[in-house]
Amino acid sequence: MTPEQMSQALVESEGLAFNPIAIKFVASISDLPVGIGKFGAASGERLPKSFLCAMWGDCFRGAGPFYTTKEDQYCGGGAIAAGFGSLLPIEAAEKFMIGDGKLFGNMEALRCSMESTMPFRDGEFAAQIVGPLAAMNDTALRPDVVLIVCKPLQGQHILRAYGFDSGEMVQGIAGGSTCEMVSSFVVKTGKPTFTLGDTGGNAGLALAPDDLLLAFPYDRLATAVANLPRICRTSNMVRYTIVHER
Q1: Are 199 and 179 in contact, with CB atoms under 8 Å apart?
Q2: Is the pLDDT of residue 93 over 80?
Q3: Exposure winner among 56, 67, 84, 235, fewest CB in 10 A?
Q4: pTM over 0.90
Q5: Domain range spanning residue 187?
Q6: How far is CA 88 from the centre of its chain?
Q7: DSSP string, 96-123
Q8: Cα(226)–Cα(165) distance, rounded to whole angstroms?
């Protein structure tokens, strides 16, 4: 099944509001496929910048494929998630990430959260290609990770289909930065996950309050897609007289 076929099957089967997107991590600029444009090339800005989560949000709304590099990033979390490396020393993040009304109560909590996502090495990747899954291929644009925005019921179906033959459970991840939770964590575990996201990431992605984000290693996605027609979608509980406590 091609990336385009998988995208179409997911959207048609589950009625997804957004087409899935795909991410490809690129170790060297020289490895970029011919014809993939740079982020912001058509913007008219001399040094266009954004947040990685907002770039993903653009792709959910039809942009791409394009590639982005460290110089395009406003957010250190996004730069770390992409494997570009931090934009500033972690200690410098204290003033806007640590304290009441911010992301963490202390620096130890921040470090623990970052380590839990199994981050890439600083500079492990020089670029990230991102775009609609349907626009990717199995050669030069073979994805590493696929992201799917869905409602809980849609996510339930997709993850049930994934484990239909194996019984494999899918563990969710929450409490950290969206971009970090669905990047290195998925690549290094080799397993799909789902997340409720976080305040910044959900804003960048422009998600609704009841949206979830599924993240699949590309090589695992076909299993879920192939089994979507096979899963149970209705409960037989209606056949029983159920007594409810008051």
Answers
A1: no
A2: no
A3: 235
A4: yes
A5: 3-232
A6: 23
A7: HHBSTTSSBSSHHHHHHHHHHT-PPPTT
A8: 11
